[in-house]
What we know:
2 helices; alpha+beta; VC0802-like; eight-stranded mixed beta sheet
Amino acid sequence: MLDIALLPGEYAVCRLAADSALPPVLSSGLGAAEVVTVSWTADGISVICPMERAPSPAVVETAWRCLRMAGPVGVAVTGTLAALVDPLAGARVNAVAFSTFDTDYLLVPAVRLDEATAALERAGHRVLG
Length: 129
């Protein structure tokens, strides 16, 4: 069984051009329950952030809810992300996953949050918040 925290508010998945500068809104004054992740590739910059921090020049897909594995969970631990994604796939709830050094996160569509949490709880996990 895994403990999973539901973070407050809605999240956005954003895409910026590869040569874009990151706006300060992404890193200034992060709250204790907020997370921002940035990934660079030659094709562009992907940002996941609270909806109100979404950069204005970005292509933005909104209305996601963010789930955080209670942790820390070390990078050497195996199978934890699969333990979360598999029940969601079985319930046909799409998910966006990302990891930090300490733990794993999942985004699920806000409109499917009840289905996602039910699927995780059926799999034996506890969703907090």
